[in-house]
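EI: anyone free to look at a 250-residue chain?
SC: sure, send it
EI:
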Amino acid sequence: MSCPTGEPPPAVRHVALEAVGSTNDEAFQLARAGASGITLVTAVSQGSGRGRMGRAWASPPGNFYGSFLVTPAGPGARLSDIAFVAALAAAETCRAVLPADRRIEIKWPNDILVEGAKVCGILTETEAAPDGLRHVVSGIGINVATDPTDAPYAVTALARHAAVTVATVRELLSQRFACWYGVWLADGFAPVRAAWTAVAIGAGRPIQVRLGAEVLEGGFGGIDIDGALLLDAAAGRRRIVAGDVMLRTR
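SC: here you go
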């Protein structure tokens, strides 16, 4: 796949590690030491991998664990956009290695689904930098060889659908992330949003959104210009900036 702009993607520095606590934490350490541009930190395994809201992320060898460290263009850059760049890159990576008849979707805000089962999760975090910008790290975990046996939802691994290696996933993901990050730097969130929407679960798909103790139900209405979820509920459209989304049967 070529880059949408037709231009070469930005360079990505790769730091390969063995067993670490968290690739996100390792990436932030590199940021504090002065890393610039795009850096991808990968590890064979993680002892303290984490997902959104502090959830543990099982990280045995055989899967992809990596974190992209980027420095946005300026203090006013919308850092949440990077999460959508990462999700789009991960979805396109899965598309590139799986058979064409496999259904690949993005579920807001950060899950990649193959045939309705989660294959990838993403955690994007930020940290203040002395120069007024912010370090942004987007951690991506992709089930390549195995998937967790105790997940409370449907999960899968790429190996259940095709023969694929972690090295291939890393190479493709690095290229796709760099491409879409370059698009975002040049043209902002609009083209990223359009491409993300084209891969997302379909409009009107029944979903349930958990906001702490509150549970909302309705149809998926897409995302707005800021990346917030639009929920078409019985009482009208609602804008949601944070929450857990579960797919429902009709």
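EI: Residues 154 and 202 are 18 Å apart (CA to CA).
SC: 👍
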